[in-house]
Amino acid sequence: MKKSFVLLLSLFLLSSIMLAGCGKAANEGAPATNGEQPATNDKPSEPKASEEPFEITIRHTQVGESKKFRLALLEDVVKKTQEAVPGLKIKLDAVDSEVNRKEKLRGEMAAGKPPEIFDVFGSPDAALYAKEGLMLDLTPILEELGLKDKFTTLAPFTHDGKIYGLPIGGSIEGFFYNKAYFEEKGLKVPATLDELEKLAETIKADGKIPFAQSSKDAWIPLMTTNNLWSYYGGPEITYGFKTGETKWTDENMVKAVAKHQEWVQKGYYKKGELGFEYADMRNQIITGEAIMMMDGSWANSVFRDPAQAGDTVGKIGFFNMPPLKAGDPVVVMQDANNGYGFSSAVAEDPRKLQAVKEFIKFMWTEEMQLRGLKEDGVLPAMKMDLEQMKTTSDDPLMQDIFKAVSEIGTSFPAFDALVQAEVNTALSMGIQQIIGGEIDPVKMLENVQAAQDAANAAEPQ
């Protein structure tokens, strides 16, 4: 790829020299004019920007009823961008998040032809694509627009000191719960993991499902596992897998996976969870079949929307997964790893590059961040005072989430931001085998460590 680029560059320079030479020769053979312009009937005209129609594509993952508010926000930004750039037509391409990340976008990147703008995970995806020269370096654009220092973090989208994408929002993971049921039964939010388990036993004895869960897509149950191992092994343990400093087979990792398996075996989840889609577990809460649910804070929009949650609106609360011991710091997955990336090819077309700049200018504003928070419950990716966030929404569920943010002692990014794709695949297969009772925690983690060793060995030194 580099040789091809050098050859193309050489040909381009050679052509430029030849054209310059031809222009000089033509001028030398032309009659002298003593500095005067030759007579012409053409009237001088001011150069103006081309208004010829052109199109760019935005690949997004705002699919389904639960993401309708996010889609509306995107559509408003698209409208403003089109109005700001003469001739621009933006095509919206909607694809399911998992399909986009693990299939479609990977295939397009392999072919070297991603859409101009696309939904992307920062770490590790953006760095992998940036290494191949497929993502636009946004560093000078952010400097130009005055946005570089406006984000809570750009680390997931930063590679070799350059920025290759922007997070659309932030999130934390924790438990949504039926607050009305808790009040009716005299239950309280747990302060330790042991209290959480006792709650689960009480709820199960009452004929309810303690934890709503859908495990057809492995990333969903892995939210629970990831939070458990960050308590048992410490949140820093995940950082060491890729460097070899820590091992998946660590005894505390085994304890965490064994705890998740124990919850499955005790019947804390509905049978058949491996066949349930993401929306199914939310319906378990909405119908009152289940009482608690581990999910990302982004899910609050479902429970605040009467069209989706019905009579459950106003009856759902949120709390962080509690620590192992009372008084220990609260450890929470908190990151800003999902956002938009831009094809490096747009740099070759000034009009497309301008369209990208306008899209960034309209999408990443305080107004849009607060709108995303108010309408969709997405925590801001841009720097914002917590008190300002609290005043944006007086919704009780949002206030619970703000409280959860304020209680965080230590935060960590989700595991898939810290390990290679092959390791993620092995872990996904492993947790589904754990849930299905096909494997024990020790063997499952040995398999993941084998995948980690292979991925680490393949990394360039």
UniProtKB/TrEMBL annotation:
Keywords: Signal, Transport. Residues 28-53 are annotated as: Disordered. InterPro entries: Bact_solute-bd_prot1, SBP. Gene3D superfamilies: Periplasmic binding protein-like II (3.40.190.10). It holds the Pfam family SBP_bac_1. The keyword Transport applies. Residues 1-20 form the signal peptide. Belongs to the bacterial solute-binding protein 1 family. This is Extracellular solute-binding protein. It comes from Paenibacillus faecis.
